[in-house]
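The protein record reproduced below.
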Amino acid sequence: MAIPKTEKIWHNGRLIDWDDARIHVMSHVVNYGSSVFEGVRCYKPGQGPAIFRAHEHARRLLDSAKIYRMDVPFTEEEIVQAMVELVGVNGVFPCYIRPIVLRGYGEAGVNPFNSPIEVYVCNYAWGKYLSKGSPDDGVDVCVSSWTRMAPNTLPAMSKSAANYMNSQLIKMEAILNGYVEGIALDVNGYVSEGSGENLFVVRNDTVFTAPIGNSVLPGITRATAIELVRELGFNVVEQMIPREMLYIADEAFFTGTAAEITPIRSVDKIAVGDGKTGPITRALHTAFFDIVEGRVPDRHGWFTQVRVKQTVAV
């Protein structure tokens, strides 16, 4: 489905028309993949829109840029306010928000230092990603033949566009083989993550997830899930996960801004548990959506409210 247009895009501190957000074909980002970005969800937990964990996303964006020596001329708070301003002006919610920092049109060649830094923020209506969103709607996945980036090659802690060429290989292979998603192993053969999601497995009422050192992006929804699972009274362990753990897990699920909380039904055609969503995954799914859909108060302070200037039907 094509990205639905909104009225405005935020560019370097000002609002421009959607169709005016253009870059030159010889921009550094086009030729060398030099951009970092975020995916952020804006929900409607009450009467109006609210951005979920906006500050954490803005901080990770700036962290990603710093790793690549990209000097962003905006602070964390300014990035948050850009998201708030844009959603308020466009009036489209619930929505997906995409902040991007890229190297624009400058000199040719791999050296990026003489290409200008540009910052964009877009938002648009977008629904569910891997599933239809029901806690019973588990997905069938496979272990990919493609491996995640090795340490000291491409930094996995940076949410960079270049990393998602690896993700595309994982995703395309999975789809062509009849699966919804692929799970990548790291360079040592341990479980890393999906093409665009963090991964959790449950065994004997303990929840396991790979540590950051296994080429894992430090996911915002991953951190949310860890906190909520612990509040539910279950133990969460960050440790290396061997591939075979995927086949004997009692439960498994993905987390991510796009994926939210998505149960996994099978891995390589082997049912996870009995093939139905397990009790811990179900409890987490309920706890997460109770918060983002406003059925319980925002006790963690995870939302940034948006004042809307106009409302567009989504």
In short: Residues 76-90 form the longest helix (15 residues).
